[in-house]
């Protein structure tokens, strides 16, 4: 039960962080799965370097959200199967 609560908190934190980062930069949503053109250039400037850092942060937050949501669901799933005993 405690493990499920922990993973739920991690999932909520990663989702809120993901929303905060993507609300600051709308280009992240457009380039979330196609970053090879921007981030693999040899002559990067500071703006594209920050963009690539934010993009990789978004990728990791998506990964953390999915994994923690799965573990949260696995931890809380037995609670959904419990039935009330009738006297």
Short description:
With 87 residues, the chain is mainly alpha-helical.
Count of helix runs: 4
Rg for CA atoms? 19 Å
The percentage helix is over 70%
Q: Which segments are poorly predicted (pLDDT under 50) over 5 or more consecutive residues?
A: none
Spatial separation of the terminal alpha carbons = 27 Å
- Topology pattern, helix = H, strand = E: HHHH
Indicate how many domains the architecture comprises: 1
Structural class: mainly alpha
Overall shape: it is rod-shaped
Determine the mean pLDDT.
83
Overall strand count: 0
Question: What assembly state would you assign to the polypeptide chains in this entry?
Answer: single chain
Largest sheet: none
Query: What amount of the residues lies in strands?
Result: under 5%
Task: Please tag this protein with its features.
single chain, 87 residues, mainly alpha, 4 helices, 77% helix, rod-shaped
Question: Would you give an account of this structure?
Answer:
By secondary structure, this protein is mainly alpha-helical. The protein has one domain. It is 77% helix and 0% strand. The chain contains four helices and no strands. The protein has helices at 2-24, 27-30, 36-39, 46-81.
